[in-house]
Amino acid sequence: MSGTDAVMRRVFAVREREAMDAATEAALAGLAARVRELTEAVVHTAVDPAEAAAVAAEVAALAARLNAARRAEPPIARIGGNGLVRQLANPVSGALNPVAPPVEIEFTPDGGVRTAFTLNGVYEGPPSFVHGGVSAMVLDQLLGAAAAANGTPGMTATLELRYRRPTPWGVPLTATAKVSRAEGRKTWADAVIAGPDGRTTVEATAMFIMPVGAHGDGGSSGDVADGDAPRG
Ligand SMILES: CCCCCCCCCCCCCC(=O)SCCNC(=O)CCNC(=O)[C@H](O)C(C)(C)COP(=O)(O)OP(=O)(O)OC[C@H]1O[C@@H](n2cnc3c(N)ncnc32)[C@H](O)[C@@H]1OP(=O)(O)O
């Protein structure tokens, strides 16, 4: 087990969960993608009530088929080649979670993280624009990934959002995050979401705290990953 692997497991108390083979993961990712399409269709559909009721009955039957064999907990945690925990069913980035857009996070050469994504009408808040809580969720995840990429993962202690202008849905968005400071168990990071014109729509600052004991020494140090810091 790598140093980062061990720290991430302690920080997030990742328990061993039932292993998932690649074929199952691919099949469930495909299922989640179809359910995302279904969700979008439900939000936009204009079919008549009888048709909506008929489809609801079919969806209930499909849920019953899936529930015929259940895991006790969502599938989690694969440690990626970069040393970061990949949550397969994370609600922001998990390919196996239909609620997730999903937002795919990549590492940047400067030690930060970035993502390019498009949110559809499922995530609408004000008419034509993304719900502010959805932007916060995406930014929390991205900021957390930046803290982890810095080798100083933790729990979100504070998350401050500044909504500069509305974030449109249905168009390509980008978001970036980077750690600004790490002291002891605390790590601060900044992030922005930008619209297709490159203008910032939301800014965020977060502080993450590594829980006591996560480092295995009472949590007094911020250099959690030592020489094994995850970098993309
Ligand atoms: C499986 C995992 C996958 C991960 C994938 C990678 C990407 C991850 C992406 C994840 C993204 C999503 C991530 C999520 O969704 S994380 C989920 C959302 N966050 C939480 O649920 C956190 C809940 N809170 C806690 O667990 C504890 O309160 C924590 C751990 C935060 C601190 O409890 P602890 O007992 O350790 O604290 P302490 O009392 O010893 O205080 C220590 C110091 O900290 C200061 N302080 C404390 N709290 C706050 C506060 N709220 N604001 C400002 N300051 C605070 C305090 O004054 C003191 O300062 P000082 O006196 O020393 O100066």
From TrEMBL:
Its EC number is 3.1.2.2. Residues 129-185 form the Thioesterase domain. It is found in: Cell projection, Ruffle membrane; Cytoplasm; Membrane. It is an enzyme of class 3 (hydrolase). It is a peripheral membrane protein. CDD domains: PaaI_thioesterase. Keywords: Apoptosis, Cell membrane, Cell projection, Cytoplasm, Fatty acid metabolism, Hydrolase, Lipid metabolism, Membrane, Transit peptide. It catalyses: hexadecanoyl-CoA + H2O = hexadecanoate + CoA + H(+); (9Z)-octadecenoyl-CoA + H2O = (9Z)-octadecenoate + CoA + H(+); (5Z,8Z,11Z,14Z)-eicosatetraenoyl-CoA + H2O = (5Z,8Z,11Z,14Z)-eicosatetraenoate + CoA + H(+); octanoyl-CoA + H2O = octanoate + CoA + H(+). Its main location: membrane. Pfam families: 4HBT. Belongs to the THEM4/THEM5 thioesterase family. This is Acyl-coenzyme A thioesterase THEM4. It comes from Actinomadura parmotrematis.
